[in-house]
Amino acid sequence: MLKAKNNILPHPDFSAETQAKWNKDFFFIQAADTQLGLMYNFGSDGSDGTPYPESKWETEIELCKASVEILNGMNPKPEFFIVCGDLVDAFGDKFPEIRQRQEKDLKEIYSKLTPDIPMICVCGNHDIGNSPTAETINSYNASFGDDYFSFYKNGCCFIVLNSQFYEDASNVPELYAKHEKWLESELATAAERGVKHTVVFQHIPWFVEKSDEEKFYFNVEKELRIKKLEQFHKAGVRKIFCGHYHRNAGGFYKDLEVVVTSAIGCQIGPDEHGMRVVKVREDVLEHQYHPLDNFPTRVIL
Predict the structure, then answer these.
(1) Which residues of 206-219 are buried (b: 16+ CB within 10 A; e: fewer)?
(2) Residues 292/274, Cβ–Cβ less than 8 Å
(3) Contacts of 31 (CB under 8 A, 6+ apart)
(4) Residue ranges of the chain with pLDDT lower than 70?
(5) How far is residue 49 from each of residues 54, 150, 180, 243, 266, measured CA to CA in Å?
(6) Residues of the chain with pLDDT > 90: what percent?
(7) What confidence tens digit (pLDDT) does each residue in 30-61 have?
(8) What is the per-residue pLDDT for 22?
């Protein structure tokens, strides 16, 4: 599990200095919402779960272990495995002891991932709080690394965002402003380096079906949404990968695709527990979601 520092991944295989030029076709695995503890809390439909402070997460442990077994068995191996937020369920400011145990179990499971497959984490609302504070963000940073950062691989720039700033930054306006200034600089730098693709990862989707849909819990407020999508589009971003919805969804703003990936953990819709294979070629990115119980062990590029 790699931990970003100073807004980069401190790993030679993801350095802009060595990875900004196109090299070869490759693939990575994107997942979301491992969220240890939610299934017991949510129940079958959100109305019959068991509320905190009682909590169990044996089912999520087994699902995460299954994901590790799948990844370790893949040949060839993905260049990286990224989880787009809500790593665990318990809010650290409300249930710190439970949160600590959930984090410990998550890290123990994914410590069994082969070193050939770096694991990269994206922060979600359950990781830093629905209304994040400097304290909740610092706690996440201490445990999982920076809440936003960039990395490069085989001629592509990957930008990881803290999407909770777009939902509620009222407690941390200075941190939000710093995030936005950094993002603008990263997009410009990627263009200057001439990368083949600039890809964004975040937890909350800008929208789940249509770019002009109304605001609800699982998307971002419309005016800000369109402003940011236009910024990304002008910067050459054509794929944004998200989680949060616990269902597969997504759509297009112009030719920029927002890809919403269902969960390894709790499912809210009809999808099965799974992960997404993303193939990266020089001129295009292709992706497909696969259930854990029917996941391909070999990816043909």
Answers:
(1) bbbeebeeeeeebb
(2) yes
(3) 67, 81, 82, 83, 84, 243, 261, 263, 264, 274, 275, 276
(4) none
(5) 10, 37, 38, 22, 12
(6) 96
(7) 999 999 999 999 988 888 999 999 999 999 99
(8) 96
